Amino acid sequence: MRRTNMKYRKRIGFLLILPLLLWLVCFALVPMLYGLRLSFFNARINNLNDPAFIGFQNYIRLFQDSDFIKSLLWSLRFAVVSTVIQMILGMIIAQLFNRNFPGKGVALTLYLLPMVISPFLMGTMFRLLFNEFVGPLAYLMSGITGTTALLGMQFVNTTLLSADATNRTPFVFINVYSALQGVSQELIEAAKVDGANAFQRTVHVTLPLISSILWVTFLEKLLASFLIFELVFALTAGGPGSMTQSASIYIYRRAFQRSDYGMANAASFTLALMLLIPSFYLVRKMLRNRK
Predict the structure, then answer these.
(1) Is residue 285 assigned to a domain?
(2) What is the CATH number of the domain that holds 182?
(3) Whole-angstrom Cα distance, residue 261 to residue 152?
(4) What is the pLDDT of residues 54-76, one digit of tens each?
(5) How many structural domains does the chain have?
(6) Among 6, 88, 93, 116, which one is most buried in terms of CB atoms within 10 A?
(7) 259: phi > 0 → left, psi -120 to 50 → alpha, else beta; which?
């Protein structure tokens, strides 16, 4: 009887996840395999129904393309700088919120609002605010920068970092703040009794206890920043020229501006392979933390 119930439960469980499995096969696995196939063909808009097989030529051409190398380097620099900035800001703000003060609930809600705004909308808002001719923030900042062209070559990377920090620092903050809520106040009080000041308590008590959460957040933010697309596309579209062309923007331009679907898919799978090891490490780290 017990064995029959187990079989029945397994069948019910399989039937419940069957729609999800079908969705993944139809809208994830099949397009992925089709894209992998196209990466070995000279697939363009004029011969997409009958592309010519060229083997690994797309991958060879890809690493001979200076634009692709530059886009990888830009994405890496942007990911590292933005992640470090947002981790520092998120930790500082989480420490400030990790206490009771009047209006804390309202302040917390207002600070988390940018996190629910899509990156594309955030990029559009910043493009209007920092417009060289009509942007109010560009005009106000001109007294410091000496120019209203904050989307020009001199300040465009700083503007992008500011927009990304506004949009994504709340994500870091909420992770760190949640971890801080789990830190035992008894340990903090014991450190106070032992004569540790605020900095020593943070470094020697708080940070070791939340280090696993910090590491997972850092890796997750680093991967997301490396693959950034919507914010850059809305704010600069990869410009001026190709100065802010991320790896994702490079793939977009290859596919939809040059109609070179073979190279675009080769770049996509190259990017996926490059991020495979850190992604696996992130998943393993998250599963260990859950245990």
Answers:
(1) yes
(2) 1.10.3720.10
(3) 31
(4) 999 999 999 999 999 999 999 99
(5) 1
(6) 93
(7) left
Q: What are phi and psi of 173, to 5 degrees?
A: -55, -50
Q: Which amino acid is at 277?
A: I
Task: Tell me if 286 is assigned to some domain.
Answer: yes
The 3-state DSSP class for residue 44 equals strand
Query: 175 lies in which domain range?
Result: 65-290
Smallest Cα–Cα separation from 220: which of 269, 165, 283?
283
Which neighbouring-strand residues pair with 41?
Answer: 53
Angle in degrees, 0-180, between the axes of helices 119-129 and 136-145, rounded to the nearest 10: 60
pLDDT tens-digit readout, 8-35: 777 887 888 888 889 988 888 898 999 9
Has residue 193 been placed in a domain?
A: yes
Smallest Cα–Cα separation from 83: which of 218, 275, 243, 268?
218
Strands 52-53 and 41-42: antiparallel
